[in-house]
Amino acid sequence: MTDIKKGLAGVVVDYTAVSKVNPETNSLLYRGYPVHELAATQPFEAVAYLLWNGELPTDAALADLRATERENRALPADVKAAIDLVPLDAHPMDEVRTAASLIGARDLAGNGSVLEAGGSVEDNLERSVRLFAVLPAIVAYGQRRRRGEEIVAPRDDLDYAANFLWMTFGEEADELVVDAFNQSMILYAEHSFNASTFTARVITSTTSDLYSAVVGAIGALKGALHGGANEAVLHIFDEIGSAENVNAWLDTALAEKRKIMGFGHRVYKRGDSRVPTMKAALDALVEHYDRPEVAALYDTLESEFVSRKGIYPNLDYPSGPAYNLIGFDTLTFTPLFVAARVTGWTAHIMEQAAANALIRPLSEYNGPDERHIEGYVVDAAVLAAAERPAEAQ
Ligand SMILES: CC(C)(COP(=O)(O)OP(=O)(O)OC[C@H]1O[C@@H](n2cnc3c(N)ncnc32)[C@H](O)[C@@H]1OP(=O)(O)O)[C@@H](O)C(=O)NCCC(=O)NCCS
């Protein structure tokens, strides 16, 4: 009997130097640095640079990256037009996926790289920076158009996180809010061979191009078991209403064998290493916006669920309510995850391309036994070829 690793659980498929998840010590390192240290000290741009290049940037390198990021921030008119074609009641992830696909097609067209679509390391680094720079405009415009609001042009005097909030809300955010948002971007940036990153690596392994890999990853991230979970947490909060309803709600949900979104993790079984940092940012936002009832619901559901099931929150649990307090619509949460994770995806795409092996696992067949089309007479030549010894074929 073949030992099937359903869902590839526990299977190590390759090396990576991008990040290390250690469920035993409950730690997550990006290129060796603990993620909570990065979140406490770095702007997201510096973490993006670290993921791509392996080292934190010097002041000059950070200034260079920031200059390129500013140059590529605005939403190109044709990409905006393509977004406008997406029905307003489609999921915004469909919008982000469509925009990323068009950006790729425009960029790759006419560069003669159809047969060598993978591109050089320099090409892929430039593409990664440009995608990273334009994604906030795509996400911000998505939320605005769903609210019937006009697009807001980027501001050159603001760094990545502050400008992202500016383009979304059309007003300058407080420093505390920018800091909480910046931390969430860093915490979401990278997480080893998760489903979307692995999707990007599979696509890259066929020597397809970086954009196709990112578009595939966006599709994988859309699902509720992966990126869609932070959105689902808010739906649960809306259903429960307030802390005093938690017990009754949980009784029913568990009796119905529902999965409680924002809890559990394939790798971490004793708690997600990113949660304490994001929870501290959420607490700061709760105080800033004076919304203690959010913290009460959060804490009650967490302690009840942990005591009943022994399953701990993952990053989506604190980030959902944090994004809600900042003012993001629930449907925008997963697109925000894309804007953050594109850094990790592209770092992995470049790593995969640099030491490539086609990713092609095997399967164990469990369909019907061999059978034949009634009345079909096999051609003698075909039969002879099929019966030839393997080494002669
Ligand atoms: C993330 C997730 C898919 C990991 O799943 P996994 O490693 O495949 O673990 P399983 O789904 O096999 O879960 C093992 C057991 O815990 C239970 N469980 C895991 N997460 C649960 C949750 N969030 N709510 C209720 N039960 C849960 C499962 O029902 C299963 O119970 P069983 O053994 O009685 O059937 C899963 O925990 C989940 O669906 N969580 C909710 C979605 C989410 O927050 N995703 C974001 C991940 S960062």
Automatic annotation (TrEMBL):
Pathway: Carbohydrate metabolism; tricarboxylic acid cycle. GO terms for molecular function: 2-methylcitrate synthase activity; citrate synthase activity. Transmembrane segments: none annotated. Keywords: Acyltransferase, Transferase, Tricarboxylic acid cycle. It comes from the Bacteria. The keyword Manganese does not apply. It catalyses: oxaloacetate + acetyl-CoA + H2O = citrate + CoA + H(+). Belongs to the citrate synthase family. This is Citrate synthase. The lineage of its organism: Bacteria, Bacillati, Actinomycetota, Actinomycetes, Micrococcales.
